[in-house]
Amino acid sequence: MLQDCRLAVLWIVILAVALSGGCAFAPPTPTPDAVAPTPTAAPAVAAAPAPRLTAPSPTVEAAVVSDTVGRLEVVTLSATSLTGNLLGDPIERSLAIYLPPSYGHSQMRYPVVYFLTGFGDQVTDFISGAHGFAMPLSLDSLIKRQRIREMIFVVVSGRNSLGGSFYVNSPVTGRWEDFVVKDIVPYVDRHYRTLTHARSRGICGHSMGGSGALNLAMRHPDLFGAVYSLSPGLFAEDGLTQSQMFGSPGAIDSFLTFQSALASVPDAEVPRAFGEAMREASARRDWTFIFTCAYGAAFAPAPKNRLPHLAYPYRRVDGQAVRIPEIWAKWEQGFGGLPGRIEKHRGDWRRMKAIVIDYGTQDEYPWIPKGCEYFSRLLDAAGIAHQSVTFAGGHEDHLGERMQEYMLPFLSDVLEPGDRGVVLDSGDN
């Protein structure tokens, strides 16, 4: 009877939680993923400067092909890097892989572009055209119009049962950075005819995937030679304070109330209670609550704490929310800590052929443009060549256009296509 009363109290609290603001990323259904711009650049350090993004990239010389239809493959990969995650998420993950028109009747190798999706997005969203980009049709059209060279294009979803992994290694959500660099890239290189050097491999992404692409490019310049980041999650000096997670006292108080209610639930009932909390939050479109859970599990994991296994940076003292500095610092490092990261990886950034940050000046989440501008200034100060490209628009309303007319043509120009197609040795795919 007491247990039922405690659960009833939790449901009442959950329904009462009303966090302010929205999520800076596409709202998820929290289930695992299923089977005129103004450029800014520091002095150039690469041997060949990257093309400028002052207009849609010019027509490029395309390979001669016998038809104009590429092939889409959706494959399921068992990701050993995600084994043992505390969320109980399956390790089987879906990839969408586009093979260009000449792939089926040639022996060439091709450059590869990896695209990391945003919060809550699945690979199927970029097949159905949910964001104005549909595989394989969009890529076929770009190749037919000679806007891009032939390439292999891989869509990777970072969605998990909390909505997003942020593509980082976490003892709670799993080793998502390793999933990309140790599971996916080797898998694609083993099973498809790719050019396997960094100068022919690019990484890009939107929102959560945009920040993930920057982070992975910075940490693995041996794998990725160019990065294009669309509306990335980046914090300026006060970005975390301005984010929807902590932008109002009500948001903090509501999350603390939720945690207090969950603490009263018997251990055996916690998974069911938390799952119901996520479903209730999704039903009322409370993306801030969902995003806070996912962000904390990724960047401030606390495996010994109750679901969602995060260390929250506030606690109540005499009825007031008090910040915990050492935990707050972990939350800041997620999308922030940019000066230290740039300084630490200055040499790695300079190995990149091209770095592009592309964002809308009318983003619904003002901390994102501020963070992008701050990041660009820091790169300038460090003498790291890059381009900062803006457009009049919001967080997602131009996503398909930016991918097709800017991101892919730019990467096509930057990545080396090989010596007019590298012929395979006997026994290759």
Low-confidence stretches: 1-48, 54-66, 420-428
**Main sheet makeup:** 8 strands, mixed
SSE ordering: HEEEHHEEEHEHEHHHHEEHHHEHEH
> What is the rounded Rg?
22 Å
Strand ordering within the main sheet? 1-2-4-3-7-8-11-12
Structural class: alpha/beta
Fraction of residues in β-strands:
5-15%
Describe this structure in words.
- Helix 1 (2-16) runs antiparallel to helix 7 and helix 9 (287-299) crosses helix 10 (325-335).
- The protein has 14 helices and twelve strands.
- The chain has helices spanning 2-16, 125-128, 137-144, 176-191, 208-219, 239-242, 249-263, 270-283, 287-299, 325-335, 338-344, 346-350, 367-381, 399-414, and strands at 71-78, 92-99, 112-116, 152-156, 169-170, 174-175, 201-206, 226-230, 314-317, 320-323, 354-360, 387-391.
- The protein is globular and about 70 Å long.
- The strands form three sheets. An eight-stranded mixed sheet has the order 1-2-4-3-7-8-11-12, with helices on both faces.
- The protein is 36% helix and 14% strand.
- The protein is α/β, with parallel strands linked by helices and 429 residues long.
- The longest helix is centred in the middle third of the chain and has 16 residues, at 176-191.
- Helix 13 (367-381) links the parallel strand 11 and strand 12 (387-391).
